[in-house]
Amino acid sequence: MTDNTGSPVAIVTGSSRGIGLAVAHALAARGMRIVLNCSSERSLEGTQAQARAIASEHGTEAIAVAANVADADEAAALAAAALDAFGRIDVLVNNAGITRDGLAMRMAPEDFDAVVDVNLKGAFYCAKAVMRPMTKQRSGRIINMSSVSGVYGNPGQANYAASKAGVIGLTKALAKELARKGVTVNAIAPGFIETDMTAALSDDQKAHAQERIAAGRLGQPEDVAALAAFLASDEAAYITGQVICVDGGLSL
Ligand code: NAP
Description:
By secondary structure, the chain is α/β, with parallel strands linked by helices.
């Protein structure tokens, strides 16, 4: 265990790329020490390089840990690695997520399970792993990445929408359990954000999405990261159990 009195420590799951990486940068820019996470050893080298870049760009400390959040033991090991490296955990951003889109009639049960395992169970396992240190220090922030798909539903995403709606229920229940212990729990529901996850969409699908977005553009990972940084801050201490859309008006 190292210094547990230094600057706040944030774990961001699924931060090898995309929204998670932008969140890691935003928290590091506010002086936090960062634990980046990727799904397996396969992406660890690249994630370690991202950790070095974050540390030098923002003048903080950052490490990378490979852990499959869908595995309760690996989620616990991720929290243990954070405590081992930095001695405390102040912020958990449950961002790791996957899609396995398809119409429900043709959706294989394994595709339903895989999405729920990562997106919903993974968030629960990671939250569970940080609760004790957070409640002991009587402060903490848990930020769960939901989706407008989880709030409103989306055809072709029965598994994903169910997992992200589940994340909202998880957020509200944990918010009630932890509020008196100084820990807030909130959810962010992004709309269409330009990352690897949405890169698979056809140009037609992107154009159709853009038409429905009041702001007239797809979102960038930084649009989401700015809200995560606010929810992680001291100023957000009285906000808990909320679901906030970052979607350029898509859901209006
Ligand atoms: P992305 O670019 O596909 O990145 C996904 C991240 O999650 C990667 O870092 C990946 O790590 C990690 N990951 C996947 N499975 C994991 C596992 N089992 N354990 C640990 N990490 C895992 O996705 P994104 O677009 O940034 O999305 C981030 C979050 O925002 C997700 O929860 C997603 O559902 C949500 N969201 C995205 C959008 C959007 O439009 N992009 C909209 C609404 C909500 P590896 O590199 O190791 O694979």
